[in-house]
Structure formats: structure tokens, C-alpha cells
Amino acid sequence: MSPWLSNPVVHTSIGDMAVELQMPAGGRPSSAMLELVSKLVEYAKQNAEHILDLIYAHYRYAEANEWLDFWDVPGGLARAEVMNEVESVALVVDDELVASVYVNPHWDPEHKLDLLFEGTITAVNGEAFDLVDGTLILR
Description:
The chain is an alpha+beta fold. Helices cover 24% and strands 35% of the residues. Strands 1, 2, 3, 4, 5, 6 and 7 form a seven-stranded mixed β-sheet that branches. A two-stranded antiparallel sheet has the order 8-9.
């Protein structure tokens, strides 16, 4: 796969997000991919605070599972501070029309954080979830 990166980035209330369309080498994005990425971009702009809630809940999940020390990430961060520990956020659509908000957090650089988008965020790293009082509960 070769990614097709948009320029410029999408500006949201929680920071800039790159847009990436993934397709076979030399390929061009299909109209369906462009339509889906447009919906994902609009969702990210309108729901950036919910995305931040999920990123922060994942950070707290990592903290509860004692991952932070391994990656030299400080514990006890407030929600407003957590994006300082995120390398990047990308809005990604592949040629099979799978759309995700792809987060590269310092506390989990090996696995990352993949928020599946199906009109809304429906899965965290491939698992259904609930967000209850800021706590991420994977089903």
C-alpha cells in the first residue's frame, strides 16, 4: 500500500490531523474513498472533543495497566495535557473503505490507537467499547 497524504491538514479544536488515503502503489483514490474521507473529516471537526475523550480514556487505560513507565510517559496527566503525549493523529481511509482515526500515542507506540469510524466511532483497536464517566471499557 502506498499512502496518499492530503495537504493541508485538518484543523480541529484538539490539534491538526493529517488525512491519509491508502491504496495499492500507483493507485488513485476512488470516489467512494473521497466521499468517506469527507465524512470522516467532518466528523473529526464536529466531534474532536469526543475523540479527545477516547484518547484520554485510552491513556487512563494504559495507566491502569502500568504501561506508562515502560514507555517513559508521565502518569496522572489531566485531560487537557494528554495531547502533549500524542505524536500524531491521522484520518485514514483504505481502499476497502475502512475508515479510522489513527492515533500515535507515546504510551503505546507499538500498537497505536485505532478508532474505527462507521458514521461514528464504533471500536477501539478492533473492540467494541463503552465510555463510562471517562473510563474506557472494552467489550
